[in-house]
Amino acid sequence: MEMMRLSDVPRAFREEACRAIIDFSIGLAKLHRVGLSENASLGGSGTLVQIDGTYGILTACHVLDHLEGEEAIGLILANTVRPFLHRVTVRSEWMRWVRIACSAKEGDGPDLGILLLSPVD
Question: In three state form, how does the secondary structure of the chain look?
Fold first, then answer.
């Protein structure tokens, strides 16, 4: 297979590809209290999905492992217009954490899970 550097892909093509997937992609953040402030660190990413009226975030098992136990998970919403600050979170106890296909050893096989959102979210 022939390889191509991302910088060699025409800019217009990259922008069009981003516009096509941005509405379905989401970042997941771990939230940390530091005094009176709150910081966030990247927890993973996922794809927004809907199956028979149930909404979820399709992600990797290792992301579920990384985020499980957090009280709330921050959502990183991308846009193609202008960056803006926002604080969108979901309560982890209101979600179902489903491991679909997880290998015993990281990197050895499937790594797929889903966060099923509550009807409220």
Answer: CCCCCHHHCCHHHHHHHHHHHHHHEEEEEEEEEECCEEEEEEEEEEEEEEECCEEEEEECHHHHHHHCCCCEEEEECCCCCCCCCCCEEEEHHHCEEEEEEECCCCCCCCEEEEEECCCCC
Angle at alpha carbon of residue 108, lines to 113 and 111, rounded to 5°: 10
**Residue 47 — φ and ψ, nearest 5°?**
-120, 130
pLDDT tens, 57-99? 999 999 999 998 888 898 888 766 666 667 788 888 888 999 9
CA distance 85 to 94: 25
The answer to whether 46 and 66 are in contact (CB under 8 A) is no
- φ, ψ (nearest 5 deg) of residue 3: -100, 150
Joined together, the tokens standing for residue 39 give: 């910081």
The answer to pTM > 0.85 is no
For residues 21 and 80, the answer to whether their CB atoms sit within 8 Å is: no
